[in-house]
Structure formats: C-alpha cells, structure tokens
Amino acid sequence: MTNRIPLEDFFRNSPQAAFQLSPDGLHISFLAPYHDRMNIFVRPICDGTPATDTPPTQLTFETGRSIAGYFWADNRRLVFAKDTDGDENYQLYGVNLDGSDMRAYTAFPGVRTSIIDDLEEVEDEILIGMNRRNPEVFDPFRLNLRTGELTQLAENPGNWQGWMTDHEGRLRSVTAIVDGVNTQILYRDSEDEPFRPVLTTNFRESVDFLEFTPDNRLVWAATNLGRDKSALVLMNPATCEEIELLYEHPKYDITSISYSRKRKKLLGVFCSGHKETVRHYFDAEEAALRQRLEAHFPGKQFGMADADKAEENYLYFVGGDRTRGAYYFYNTREDHPHLVAELAPWLHEDNLVPMEPFTYATRDGLEIEAYLSKPAGHEGTVPLVVLPHGGPWARDRWGYDAEVQFLCNRGYAVLQMNFRGSTGYGRSFLEASYKEWGRKMQDDITDGVQHLISTGVADPARIAIYGGSYGGYATLAGLCFTPELYRCGVDYCGVSNLFTFMQTIPPYWKPLLEMMYEQVGDPVKDHDLLAAASPALHADRIRVPLFIAQGANDPRVNKAESDQMVAALRERGIEVEYMVKDNEGHGFGNQENRFDFYRAMEAFLAKYL
Q1: Domain 17-154 maps to which CATH number in 3.40.1350.10, 2.120.10.30, 3.20.20.70, 1.20.210.10?
Q2: Which of 207, 212, 278, 436 has its CA 20 to 30 A from that of 218?
Q3: How are strands ordered across the β-sheet holding 254-260?
C-alpha cells in the first residue's frame, strides 16, 4: 500500500508554473504564489540559462484572485487578465518588465475581454474583443499598450463569433451564426473592404481557418466538409475552395498545427490520440529537432511551451501520468536541456499510480476510449469512483490528474471515459451525443462501469460517481436514472434542470442558443425529452447520499441549479451535503477553497463508499 500523501500536496499551488520566454529570449516569466494567489514574476536569462541564483522580480501583487493568464506583448511589457470572484468577466492589465507603469486597459464592470491577436510583429498594439457595447456580442478593438487608446475596428451586428487576422495583424475573416444553426464564413482581401459571405454550412460541418500562408493569400484550414474526421487542407479563403489535402487521420480529428514565424513555414500537424499525441511533420528540420529531444527525454511525453522570436531558445513541458510535470530550457545550439522547475517537487513518481488506457464497447456498438487508474497494493475488486469529464463537448486525455491520483491514494480506482460527444473523434461520434443528455451519453458511462464490474476490477457494492460541470450533471443523472448502480455521488457545479440551465446562461452564449437547442433539446419542441433528462425533476428517484459544491458567482451553471436540487432532496429527507463558496465561480480557483472541497469530499467518500 502506497504511503498516504497529504491532501494539500495534490491540490496546492505550484511553487512556479506557466513559464514563458520574452521575444528576445533574455527573460523568463512565470506564475508563483503570493498570499496563496498566483502572480507574475520574471528573471533574466544569463549565459544561455535562466538565472535561478538571483531573486526574481515580482510584477503583480494580487491577493483576491490568481492571475488568469498572461503573455509578453513585447520585450518590455507583459499583459495579463484577471476576473472578480470567478465571474469570468476577464479584464486586461499591463505592466513593464521592471514593474513600472501598471495600468488597467479594460477595467469595465461586467465586461469580458478576449484576445484576438497579440500582434507579435506589430509594436505596442494588440487586438482584443469586448462585449462593452452589448453584453451578448463582442466587438473588435485595436489596443495601444503605451497610451491605452482603444480603436474599434468593426461593429458586431450580433452574430459574429470569431475573428482571424493575417500575418500583418489585419482582420481578414469572421465566423458568424446565421439562422440560429448555420455557420457562415465572411472574408475580405483588405481592411478597406467590407466583409462578404463566402461559405454557409450547418453548424455540424466545420471549416476553421488556422493560419494564413506567408504571403497572406491562402490559408491552412481544418475541415470536415465531405468527410467524418477533421483534416488539414490548403484553402482559398476568398471562396473556401479546397486546394490540397495535406493530412488526415483515419481515427482522430486534427487538433492543431505548428508554424514557424521566423522561417515562414508550416512545420507539422497534430491529433490527440488515446495516449500519445499523433504527430506528422512537413519539415525535416523540425522532425530532427523532435528526435534530438526524444533522446533527452526517453519514455516521457513533452511538448513545446514557448520559444523566443529567433527560435533558438525554447521552453519544453515534460510530463507523464505520475508527475505534475516540469519545465526545461533548451538552446538549439547547445542541445542540452536545463531543468527550470518542477511543478510539484514534493510528489514522487514512485508514490503515484499509472493511468491505463483501455477501450470498451457500448450497448449500441460504439468504441469508447477510456482510462483506468487503480490504487497501489490492492488485489481483487476495489471501490470505484466514476469520473465523467465536463463539457460535455470536451475530452479526457492520458496524463497526470491531481483528482485521480488523490482518489487512488485513498484506495479508490478511478474510471474516466470519452463518452459519445467527446471531441476529437469525428463528426458522427460528436453528433451521436445530440439530444442524448441523460440517455445514450449516460448509457456510455454506465456501460463502462459494467465493463469494470464484469472484468473483476470494480466492487459492485462500492461505486461512486463524481464530476464537475457536465460531469456534475452526469453524477445527478446517474443517481436518478441508474440508482441501483451507485452508493453515493458528488456533484461539482453541475446542471440539474435543463430548462432553467438554458434560461440562465451567460449573455454572450445567447447567440448560440438555437445551436444548443439542436445539441441538447428545444425547451418547447423537445419539452418531454428535457423533462425526462432533468435530474431536479426526478429527485424522488435518488436513494443514496449526495454532496454538492457550487460557486456563488458561476456564470455558466447558475447557483440556482444546485439550490433546486438540494431543496428537492431535503424535502424528501435524502441526505445531501451542500458547500457554497461566495468568492468562486465555475469551479474553485482559490487554494483554500480547493482544500475545503477535497477535504469534504474525502470525508464523504470515506463515510459512504
């Protein structure tokens, strides 16, 4: 039996994380705790390695909420985002490398800011989107980082959802929603022209412009037009004509590409596989670099985290299933990786357990890719925690998972599965989930549990289900619709009522509401389907204890989703524990709140499982 690891070791902040390089490669930045909140620090790079023997310079001093994200705008200035108590209305700020000239760029109450383009080649400017004029839509702005001046570039008519710039930072393409459920690509050759529609498809079909070619004439695009899996093609953006098929995988969608700004060349394309990332290189130099790095990190998974503008200094993240990971600094001329920092140096791989990829078949014949993690030192059947992911149009991946390792260290096996609707598996697998909340999507989870029971892994009398967001919904649905399967459940900010959920979505989701009706169900046309799949309307079916945790400021799953579930259960005398954090949103970001949640969950599972 593995030694019992303190709960805090799994869930406390890393001493250093989120490393980035300045464009000139002379400084390295990272997030580190300050009063238990992650703030930005920088230190110089001397003689080809980060100067770890000199104290870093602290640039931000946030104590209410951790920095949500940041990037280098140029060699002198960093830009960062933060929200208030988890409301996800991210506001943008900037600070100089030496800590001077801290200023707020978009500190507008109730307004959410997004980054359109960091304009790597344009001095002192970035492109951002804001819903300041109308909470439901985002307008594009050019932000001058020196003066703070905001210049609106276009007015969103109400249905524009995404923007694409060329290598000169000019807005060239817009993705729009038309008639509620159709996606339209609009294009222009220059910013002097109006946008014109060039392709309209149903939202089930996709054409995503990924990057302009170096001459800004053609684009590399991911598309599933005429095929099931999303493939990489060369495309004419003015007509959306497919010029050349560059890569497609028989099993997985492509997820990203790699492009060299310095060499102005497409380097590679990637897919998320069951365990390994599928990599295909177009560039021999990039493939050779990968081979050199594999020799340095045999048996490890690694990927590039950042690079300087000269593409000589790189940061690589190296990880696996039994480590939170580490960052390495790598200079191409020196060809020797330097360890920068481990994200959890207090955790040792020998005390953690492997995540085992496996597959199982659903009752209607789909293949589900899944992951099983088992507690060390246990023989025979073990208690099982079923952990469906959120989204639901997201996916689980092989690798380190703090929740999984924590639960295994406490003696539970953990099942994760990419049920139908999980992304990366093609169009038909995605569409198989439409209007199947609480139905076939839930059957996929149940079938995975039954597989582990039939193969002698899981003790059928000791199975719990736990998840966040959609995973929280799946927890409630599992307890309602398969009440004999589970001993208890933990719902973390999960949907309970599909009618009220759609009435309380963030305002900027409202243009997508017709699509949600196609994916989840129309409250009028599909009333009976949504009623049958809403756990809050079937609370009388729940027979076992339930623990619910909720952030008071959650903009995605309103607190009322949890309130009504708790009220319905307590009215029937079912035991339900309820934790609400007033300074949190969709999931608990503050370290002390994470500790509270996992302590309560640990005690709950120990009592009932």
Answers
A1: 2.120.10.30
A2: 278
A3: 254-260, 265-272, 277-281
